[in-house]
Design goal:
By secondary structure, the protein is an alpha+beta fold. The chain has 19 helices and 20 strands. The strands form five sheets. A seven-stranded antiparallel sheet has the order 8-3-2-12-11-1-20, with helices on one face. It has a six-stranded antiparallel sheet with strand order 9-10-13-14-18-19. It has a three-stranded mixed sheet with strand order 15-16-17. A hairpin with a 2-residue loop joins strand 13 and strand 14. Helix 2 packs antiparallel against helix 3 and helix 14 packs across helix 16. The mean pLDDT is 95.
């Protein structure tokens, strides 16, 4: 019997999810098993002190919903507390560079840790297995260790980039962090070495025994808050009490007969649907995949959606997001006409500099009953902070808030920041066709978009759709991965576009997908990571 298929960036995590399916679990159980192992073997990409979004489709139960668990600014945060520290905005819109990097690394970067609460909520509502049982594989990787993979070490070695500090300081500046990830001589663990984190294992054992109350209101919560108070962090017991996820209906749209289901703001689903609506006005297949004109048209749609995101999209509890207008076919037709005229949209940036950080991971799962789960979860920009004896790293999601008051993305106590997280399910004739999502900061929506177009407009398999060369436009510059033809680059420059070629052959998000055609699955795992897609 075939139980299901999983695509994710970590082989260890995929295997844990497959084991849950083989043990009789459903897609929700498998997704949480996978996610918990991800926190152990890719601990800067995600963690129990992180945030994210999950879409769940359970046709046998009539369930189609999302759980939003974006991190929220601590209740003691103030809208203007960092305004005087602004140096520049990242060129792709992924956050601001501040003096002292107070929003990136350290205790001030930490927002409310909501991932663990979301995992438990999903299992309680729709799973068949317990959090305690599903924690066991993750505990094993903490206590017995995991082999450091190239992708993990590559992140640790990330150099300084246009105003952002290199990752090495994040891994070594805090003593409790350095103890986990460095040898006695101060060098980071190398590829192929086995890294153990017994402190995290003990934390997970306490959670397995006592439930998530251990983390949010019990002894572990007390240790978290004591550490914050001792080191200038803003997180408090009051913040931990707010960490339940929020259930929302999917944000839906249509594209050439397909139904698109993604997430609501402050996530990136609104951008996906806006871009698809614009692109529906063009015969993309006739333009030719990744031809100069194809890239021009898609890049302009990306820029328009980026402008609208910057101006209008934030936490709907704090901002009146014009969802109906931005996702309307009429608005899309207006934008498409501007693209046809040759207009070039302008993306405003404040003293632009810096590039994206990809500190996120993803899971796509389909099971034999037709249940589908797609979840993107993350630490944002990891804070680098580990509380002595607890083992896990905290999120650094304060990075992306706008330090300027009065804007859609501005700071406010209890407010969630925009993220491009956009776990999506595409339906054809009422049944799932493509389950996908991606890590990749601001590039998440751009990577997801192109894989969706590859599958819907060009009929590619999941792996071909994921592997095809990608590009991006989250600023006035069109960014090209290294497999986009040089002749295409010359043509884009001749059209008057600034173009930047990236050295990476696989860039602009790390998409992981499962496609379903005639009841059969095929999976795609992004080659830029060490992950895999596999059925059991």
């Amino acid at each position: 019997m075939t139980h299901g298929m999983i695509s994710a960036p970590q082989p260890e995590a995929v295997e844990a999810g497959l084991d849950a399916l083989k043990a009789g679990g459903n897609a929700v159980d498998a997704a949480i098993a996978c996610a918990l192992v991800q926190t152990a073997v890719d601990p800067q990409m995600c963690g129990i002190a992180g945030f994210g979004n999950m879409q769940v489709y359970l046709p046998g139960s009539g369930v189609h919903t999302t759980l939003d668990f974006h991190g929220r600014a601590p209740l003691s945060a103030r809208p203007d507390m960092w305004e005087h520290l602004i140096e520049r905005e990242a060129s792709d819109g992924w956050g601001f560079i501040l003096k002292g990097r107070v929003n990136e690394y350290g205790y001030g970067a930490i927002s409310s840790p909501r991932s663990l609460a979301a995992f438990e909520a999903a299992l309680t509502r729709w799973g068949t297995m317990s959090l305690s049982d599903l924690l066991q594989p993750a505990i094993g990787y903490c206590e017995d260790g995991f082999t450091v993979r190239p992708h993990v070490r590559e992140y640790w070695d990330k150099p300084p980039e246009a105003g952002r500090d290199g990752t090495i300081g994040m891994m070594t500046n805090v003593a409790a962090t350095r103890k986990i990830y460095c040898h006695d001589d101060g060098s980071l663990y190398r590829v192929g070495e086995v890294l153990k984190n017994p402190d995290m294992g003990r934390t997970y054992r306490r959670i397995a025994e006592n439930g998530i109350a251990e983390f949010y209101s019990g002894g572990t919560a007390d240790r978290i808050v004591s550490d914050m108070q001792a080191n200038g962090g803003m997180l408090s017991h009051a913040d931990l009490k707010t960490c339940a996820p929020e259930e929302n209906p999917p944000l839906k749209g249509t594209y050439r007969g397909f139904e698109i289901a993604s997430n609501q703001p402050p996530g990136g689903g609104i951008q996906l649907i806006e871009m698809l609506n614009i692109l529906e006005n063009f015969d993309l297949a006739a333009l030719g995949h990744n031809s100069p004109e194809y890239i021009r048209v898609v890049a302009e749609a990306m820029k328009i959606a980026t402008i609208d995101k910057d101006r209008h999209v934030g936490d709907p509890k704090f901002v009146d997001v014009p969802v109906e207008r931005l996702t309307s076919k009429a608005y899309a037709a207006e934008m498409a006409e501007a693209i046809r005229r040759g207009d070039k949209a302008h993306v405003e940036r404040l003293n632009p500099g810096g590039t994206e950080s990809k500190n996120t991971t993803h899971i796509s799962v389909v099971d034999a009953a037709g249940n589908c789960v797609t979840m993107t979860h993350t630490l944002g920009n990891p804070s680098g902070v580990v509380t002595e004896g607890l083992g896990f790293m905290y999120n650094g999601s304060m990075t992306v808030f706008d330090p300027r008051p009065g804007r859609a993305g501005s700071l406010a106590p209890g407010k969630a920041r925009f993220s491009a997280l956009s776990p999506t399910i595409i339906f054809k004739d009422g049944t799932p066709f493509l389950v996908l999502g991606a890590p990749g900061a601001t590039q998440i929506t751009m990577g997801n978009l192109q894989v969706m177009l590859n599958a819907m407009d060009f009929g590619m398999s999941a792996q071909d759709a994921v592997c095809a060369p990608r590009f991006s436009a989250t600023s006035d510059t069109i960014d090209l991965s290294n497999r986009i033809l040089r002749s295409t680059e010359r043509d884009l420059k001749a059209m008057g576009y600034p173009v930047r070629r990236w050295p990476q052959s696989y860039a602009f998000a790390w998409v992981h997908a499962v496609r379903i055609v005639d009841g059969k699955w095929d999976g795609g795992a992004d080659p830029a990571t060490d992950g895999m897609a596999m059925a059991v």
